[in-house]
Each structure stands twice: as C-alpha cells, then as structure tokens.
Amino acid sequence: MRKYFITGLLILVPLAITLWVLNIIISTMDQSLLFVPERWQPRTLVGFDIPGLGTILTILIVFLVGLLANNLIGNYIVRLWEKLLHRIPVVSSLYGSVKQVSDTLFSSSGNAFRKAVLIPYPHANSYTIAFLTGTPGGDVKNHLVGDYVSVYVPTTPNPTSGFFLMMARSQVVELDMTVDAALKYIVSMGVVAPD
Fold it and tell me: What residues contact 164, with CB distance under 8 A and at least 6 apart?
C-alpha cells in the first residue's frame, strides 16, 4: 500500500508543480489584456474570459517589438528610449543592470553559464556546484592578485537566486557535465544525479 502511495506521489508531485508554474506564467501573461480597451476585451465581446489569450497577446507584442527594433527606425527609437532611461537616476542603474543580464542570457552569441564547475563553498572542506560566468574585469581585476574567475552559485531548489563569487582559478574544478545536467542536480537537491 505504501509503495503505491509513494509511486503516485512521484508521478503527481512533479506534474502538479509543473501545472502550477504554468498556471502562474499564463495568468501573469493574461494580465496584458488589461492594456486592451474594455470594449475590445473578450469579457465584453463574448461574455466570458478566454484563458491564454493574454499569453498569445504577450507573445505577439514581444514579436512585434523585436520586429520593429530590427529595422532602422525602430532601432533609432530604442536608442532614444534607452538614452531617456539612462538620464533618470534610479531607473538608470536598475535598467542598465537588467539589460546587461538579459543581453547575456538571451544573446545567441554567448551563454550566461559557460561551464559547470566544482568549488569549495562555504568552507574549504565542503563543495558545491557553480557555473563559470566569466572573468573579473575593470577596477575589480586591478585589485585581485593572481588568476581569478567569476562563478555563480545557485541555491536549491530555486537556482535563480544565488551568490556571485570571484575565485582563484586554481580552486575551480571544471566538471564533465552539461549546464542542464548540473541545474537538474541542483534543483533536485542532489537526488537526481547526473549521468
């Protein structure tokens, strides 16, 4: 009896969490319908809400903005918009940081996480998986003695929060593991071991 219950849990828990996350994403995207005038909203036109319509609208908006930004006039408008944002004190630093991260994550030319690595953390006799993100630059590099690399240490079970560290390259062990396999290992709290 216990075996069947655990088997059922192992099947239903990942499915339930996946559906829950998808519901949150779709519900959030459906909020884009709030920008549509009341008389054109599905509730007014057909008498009921259509789940997922906001998701389609969001994807369409993202596509159209990308299409517009890739031509000469759109590119000029984007540059003007960014100049304006860079003149607003708090918005400037926040927008600049978010733009840099999104450019890194979504650019086709490079990967945000280049390699899965093993590092001593939080102390010398304890190890964790991290991701190589690059090398320190600018003034930071001038203050570091030796060869250093930048690593991101994700937390479990939510890898989007974590710690950014600069470590001596000699302390970093490159793993023969894909970034995806390392992420699965981290999110599963070490339960799903990489192949």
Answer: 133, 150, 151, 152, 153
Reading phi first (left if > 0) and then psi (alpha if -120 to 50, else beta), residue 188 is in: alpha
**pTM of the full structure:** 0.54
Tell which phi-psi region holds residue 161, choosing left (phi > 0), alpha (psi between -120 and 50) or beta: beta
132 strand-pairing partners: 115, 151
Question: What's the confidence (pLDDT) of residue 157?
Answer: 73
Q: What CATH number has the domain spanning 115-187? A: 2.30.30
Q: Is the peptide bond before 157 cis (omega within 30 degrees of 0)?
A: yes
Q: In the chain, where are the structural domains located?
A: 2-106, 115-187
pLDDT in tens, 98-143: 777 676 666 555 556 778 999 999 888 899 999 998 888 888 888 8
